[in-house]
TrEMBL record:
Cellular compartments per GO CC: mitochondrion
Gene source species: Cylindrotheca closterium
Reaction catalyzed: 4 Fe(2+) + O2 + 4 H(+) = 4 Fe(3+) + 2 H2O
Disordered, as annotated region: 1-38
Name this polypeptide is given: ferroxidase
Family statement drawn from the similarity comment of this UniProt entry: Belongs to the frataxin family.
């Protein structure tokens, strides 16, 4: 299992917490595109997917570091010249040789999201759901962060990232 995916045990723990919350309130836990917002609207409660900000940082950092490693290895093995992959202060920057452009993938701590800016597909916001960072804004484009990056790098260079 890739390191960027949450363990099965962690998923079960999250499901148990959601069930416990719904049982406590006597109401079903809300399902929807924004699991990172905790609120009560009288009928539903939606729980944060992260138990703490520290947990968010740990999972987001691990994801971005895994992406950094996979991209560096794949581009080096392919012999792509003059690329730069750096991760610092919660921002992963992938600079590809012209005409491909620059990817910026960064942590968005207040929303507990990862934001993406791609020279091919533009900006996206990914939310953490069931062990993966998922683009939830447009159901017609529902995809994970890893899937999006793998597809775009494959389109550009014909290589598969090991993520």
């Amino acid at each position: 299992m890739p390191r960027c995916m949450v363990s099965r045990q962690k998923q079960q723990q999250q499901q148990q917490q959601q069930h416990a919350a719904s049982t406590l309130l006597g109401k079903p836990a809300a399902k929807g595109p924004s699991p990172t917002n905790t609120f009560s609207n009288g009928d539903f409660i939606q729980l944060r997917m992260f138990q703490s900000e520290s947990e968010y940082h740990s999972i987001a950092n691990e994801t971005l570091e895994d992406i950094q490693d996979a991209v560096e290895i794949a581009l080096e093995e392919k012999g792509v010249g003059e690329f730069d992959v750096t991760y610092a202060s919660g921002v992963l920057t992938i600079v590809l040789p012209s005409p491909h452009g620059t990817y910026v993938i960064n942590k968005q701590t207040p929303n507990r999201q990862i934001w993406w800016s791609s020279p091919k597909t533009g900006p996206r916001r990914y939310e953490y759901e069931e062990g993966e960072w998922v683009f939830t804004r447009d159901e017609s484009q529902s995809t994970t962060l890893v899937q999006s990056l793998k597809e775009e790098i494959h389109e550009i260079y014909g290589i598969d990232l090991d993520l």
